[in-house]
Amino acid sequence: MAEQSAIATVPTGLFIAGRWRATTDTLAVLDPATGRILCQVADATPDDGLDALAAADAAQAEWARTPARERSDLLMRAYHALLDNTERLALIMTLEMGKPLTEARGEIAYAAEFFRWFAEEAVRLDGGYMPAPTGGSRFLVAKQPVGPSLLITPWNFPMAMGTRKIGPALAAGCTCVIKPAEQTPLSMLALAEILREAGVPDGVVNVVTTSDPGAVTEPMILDPRSRKLSFTGSTAVGKTLLQQCARTVMRTSMELGGNAPFIVFDDADLAEAVDGAMAAKMRNIGQACTAANRIFAQRGIADEFARRLAERMAALPMGRGTEPGVVVGPLIDKDAVAKVSTLVADARQRGAHLITGGEPVDGPGNFYAPTVLTGVPDQAQMCHTEIFGPVAAIAEFDTEDEVVRRANNTPYGLVGYVFTENLRRGLRVCEALETGMVGLNQGVVSNPAAPFGGVKESGLGREGGLTGIDEFLETKYIGVKL
Ligand code: NAP
């Protein structure tokens, strides 16, 4: 499908109460590979946000009463519709976000899977019945939807971070207002239209795009009609939102930043470890919360591991994500390129060795060459912040205790990776890592059927898996005197 005709299929208004609404002001969506404007979308005011919340609130009671089987059927229709539209949606995502088409297709499949998973979970909400231990009365325990939910998503996975929240919210019986990232609103707007066509009732799903996120979302958070905030984004913004939520004691789920350690022991299968590092580092051009941020290689294999990784990184075809064969697309914006350049310069100045890459690419797009550094000292800035780019930072280590201590020396705790053929050591290190998730001999952990989330400053709550729906449910206990 031609690029402009794909973009032209996306509604550009606000989606409120089942209707598309234009705004006076608009915001431009750019192609990060060229810097060109793709289109303009609506730019909501705080009043628009409150209208969306009012629509979600008005639809809440009816949606909560809708039989779970009907909610499930709707999600299943949306699952099929997403898959049927894969090529169009993948192209839209590549154009607004930059990731190569192959990865964008993968994200559509991953995003759709959240709808299927939660369609299956919608009809399995359970409760309890038990005699009080003291006798006399009975305990009934029921699950109820938490209510209208505000869902805020980042630009790096513009479709999947949305369906990972919309799926469980709708399955649980919650209505919602979604605020996608301003750099990548098109995927979510296209999804809203798909949900409308799949039969989502008016007001159950609302989408608000804005260039002033704080001004639009704070009044919604402080409004007692909103009962839940599910946020995916940076730890800094997450902390601000948590403070706002404290004022009304609002339920929150927080999927925040990471600083993943990737540990390769001497006894690892080196080919597998290099494959794992490529996946954990280069997925989404390094712009993932799960990205391998600090790679620790044990001294016996460190040189060979770095050599093989650098060979693979240097050979990656870079270019616009729409071009066939491209694996490395552009970063999201010029600030991202500047940040990566600063981090690489800082690490080199502190003694790290550059094996390959190390430069931004001249031109209108936001490209940075795949880069491998060795001997990166723990004090380097890139060990304390998300690199969010195609830069592999390798450091050596000697002992298990030492690497666990260094890996845990961060306020973040989203995910870690461990490569070893020694099962006992593997499990020991998995247990010792202060993270919500670990990949043992695998470089990708994301799976809709698994509980995704972090500890420490990487977040609160879990998305996906058997517990993902609980984030949108309240537990009610009813004491019955017999
Ligand atoms: P971000 O700057 O925190 O933005 C995330 C979302 O919050 C966007 O929709 C953004 O809107 C909005 N936002 C920004 N400031 C806000 C405010 N004051 N009030 C309300 N909303 C506000 O993060 P990002 O740069 O888009 O995404 C990258 C970050 O997300 C990284 O730290 C990454 O690790 C994290 N992430 C975590 C996970 C996970 O599952 N743990 C998954 C993906 C990404 P605008 O776009 O308009 O700024």
From TrEMBL:
This is NAD-dependent succinate-semialdehyde dehydrogenase. It comes from Nocardia donostiensis. The keyword Cell membrane does not apply. Belongs to the aldehyde dehydrogenase family. GO terms for molecular function: succinate-semialdehyde dehydrogenase (NAD+) activity. It comes from the Bacteria. The active site is at E255. Transmembrane segments: none annotated. Residues 22-478 form the Aldehyde dehydrogenase domain. CDD domains: ALDH_F5_SSADH_GabD. GO terms for biological process: gamma-aminobutyric acid catabolic process. PANTHER family: SUCCINATE-SEMIALDEHYDE DEHYDROGENASE, MITOCHONDRIAL. Keywords: Oxidoreductase.
